[in-house]
Every structure is written in structure tokens, then in C-alpha cells.
Design goal:
The chain has 299 residues and is α/β, with parallel strands linked by helices. Helices cover 33% and strands 19% of the residues. It has a single domain (51-294), classed as Aminopeptidase (3-Layer(aba) Sandwich). It has helices spanning 3-27, 88-103, 122-129, 188-200, 226-239, 256-262, 280-294, and strands at 51-57, 63-69, 74-79, 112-117, 170-173, 176-179, 204-210, 214-217, 219-220, 223-224, 242-244, 267-272. The strands form three sheets. It has an eight-stranded mixed sheet with strand order 1-2-4-3-7-12-8-11, sandwiched between helices. A hairpin with a 2-residue loop joins β5 and β6.
Length: 299
Amino acid sequence: MSKRTTIILLGLLIAALAGALVLSQQLGTPTAKAPQPEPVATPEPEPTWPEVSTIGSSVEGREISVHQFGAGDKHLLFVGGIHGGYEWNSSLLAWQFIDYLTVNPDVVPDDITISIIPTLNPDGLALVTGTGGRFDIRDVPDPSTRVAAARMNTNGVDLNRNFDCKWEPESTWRGNIVSAGTAPFSEPEAAALRDYVSDTNPSAAVFWHSQANNVYASECEDGVLPATLTLMENYATAGDYGAVPSFDAYPITGDAEGWLASIGIPAVTVELESFQDIEWERNLHGTMAVIDSYSNIAK
């Protein structure tokens, strides 16, 4: 090989090496992939109570809401304000109970669901307070005076005579004749409760009213359910109310509690002693006694 040829080959070799170096710099040298951290499990968020939903609306279109706490198999239903502004303190009591459970959700056992309908007759409540929803005592113009018309819904029907238990077109209230509607559940408010009960099948129901200072059992055609008597005694004893197994002061037809009895659901009427006060401590004791009696979780 001549000297010239050797020089040419060395030049080609140097050029090839230089080209490879440039290409390597352009492409970059592969690096080891950094280890990825293990995914961290995100805990499920705790449920926020209450769950609020609308179960229907009144004649005038006001919403009827239900506030639910817990997710247990045994479902307890509490209802206020079926007689609207005439018994506004029953709705105020329901709102106080909602507030209490919101701040103290742990008092609801894991095997219990609590549903609270604060006002079943929002139109009647609005006649007194100006609203069918949340209110306080300052919204009641004169707490010492009762407005009889506010007991009825906008159609002039006593909702606690519009349910399917011995229903008649007319019923009585303290000796007065009252309209019970054109048929059982003819009123949208009563129909809303019927549909909600059908969907949820509560284990028991408590209706807040005023005023008589008693807890009344319910019955329809087949008498008082044994579980209703237990429910009555538990609430009455804990809340320091009288216990009345059968209401006989005057004839009643079409009441909500009687209808529930007819479909096998224990229900009681809690008549507060006053129509101006919610008697909070007494009713807190009564409601908690009912909750405890339906829970199988040891205290």
C-alpha cells in the first residue's frame, strides 16, 4: 500500500469517527429510566350528611324536602308540619333535629337510616311564616295566636284526613267538619308522602304535632300493631309525655298514622305540650330512645 493510499484511508477513518461522534451528540445517549413511585391509594371520602332530596310539591308548587342521615337497613321516618302554620312548632322541631344530626352524625348507628320531612304542608306554613321552607321563631308574627286556616292546604283540605284509612270526604277536627279531599291521596302533599313510603318502606314513623302533651298509637281496621305500642312507650317514657294507646276524643278518618298502620308500619303521633315551644330536650330524648330501640349495635 502506498503512502498516499494510507493517508487517504486514515482520513476516511477519522472522518467516519467524527461523523459518528456528531450523530451521537445529536441523538443523545440513552439514559436509564427513573423508577416511578408506587401509586398511593386514595381513601374513600366520608359521606356528608344530610342527603337532601325533593319528594314532591304542594298545591302552590312549594317543594317538600326530605333530609336523610345514615345508610343502615332500618329506616326511621320523622315528619313535621302536616298541619302547616297551625302547628309551626312541629316544623321548627324538625329543623332543630336536622341541625342536631348534621353537627352530631355519629349519634346515628351504622344500622340505622333517619329521614326527616320538616314540613309536609308548606303552603299552610307559608300562611304564617311567609315561607314553606326553613324559618325561625322571628318569622312567626305572633307565636301566641294560632291561625286555623293555616292547618289546611291551599285546597282547604286537612291533609291528615286525606290518607287511605277509613277515608270519607268529610271528617272532623275538634268537633268541626273538615274537608278530607275528593279521594284518598287526592292532595299532592299526601301523595308525596305515600310515594316516599312506597319507595323506602320505613321501619317506623313519628309525626310531630301540637298540642296535647301525649304520644298516641295508631290503628286502622285491624287494631293497634304490637310494635306501635312499643314505639309509643319508648318515646313517651323518654320524653316525659303521656302514652295513649287509642285516640277516642272524637272520630278521625283518613289520618296518615292510621294509613301506615294499615300497611303494617308502626307509627305514632307526638303531640307537644305547647304550640309555641319545640320542647327540645324532651323530644331529643324521645327520638334517641326510638333510634336506640331499633338499632342492634351495642351502646
